[in-house]
Amino acid sequence: xxxxxxxxxxxxxxxxxxxxxxxxxxxxxxxxxxxxxxxxxxxxxxxxxxxxxxxxxxxxxxxxxxxxxxxxxxxxxxxxxxxxxxxxxxxxxxxxxxxxxxxxxxxxxxxxxxxxxxxxxxxxxxxxxxxxxxxxxxxxxxxxxxxxxxxxxxxxxxxxxxxxxxxxxxxxxxxxxxxxxxxxxxxxxxxxxxxxxxxxxxxxxxxxxxxxxxxxxxxxxxxxxxxxxxxxxx
Length: 234
What we know:
The chain is of the alpha+beta class. The chain folds into two domains: 3-70 and 205-233, 2-Layer Sandwich (Alpha-Beta Plaits); 73-200, Pseudouridine synthase. The protein is 27% helix and 33% strand. Strands 1, 2, 3, 4, 7, 10, 11, 12 and 13 form a nine-stranded mixed β-sheet that branches. A two-stranded antiparallel sheet has the order 5-6. A two-stranded antiparallel ribbon has the order 8-9. The chain is elongated and about 60 Å long. The two termini are 15 Å apart.
């Protein structure tokens, strides 16, 4: 069994939860133990985030994971102004920073400032490795986390709605861009502080969330047909 599968990850699930779930379906179909089935993905989503995961099934596909992770991605972002978070999102410890209320035009101008080729420092609570250890593990242990800024590309940030303190916008970005860092940088420039209140990935390259299945739609009966369709399209 080989191919792609597009899954709409629910809130609260980790990316590994989705992979594990699909692996169990594949194992049942193929009559194997789950550990003997090759299943992977092309880019992690945080548990609090929702949206598109591209799941890879079979050795011919999982071996392409590194190159497929380089695809551009599109996100629907909710940014909450006036507070900052230790983790960059609503899961962390929040601190009030400012009551400044900017105009829609000011918000749009700053969003446009963060497009093009930029340098970005990944968040401390990320899967980046420091001397072989995940940054988030060090951060949770209260150890210092020093990550270097690295080049990223942001194609566009389009404002969808603004009702203080929440700003919603669509961000199309290149591989390796951290939306939590983008939001924190925007909040810093506005002088209000900000954290990522919600995130939904809606596209990976040409693959759209509209074609994705929820986990409960992926069963032993439906999986083979879903893989065949995606394999043919891909």
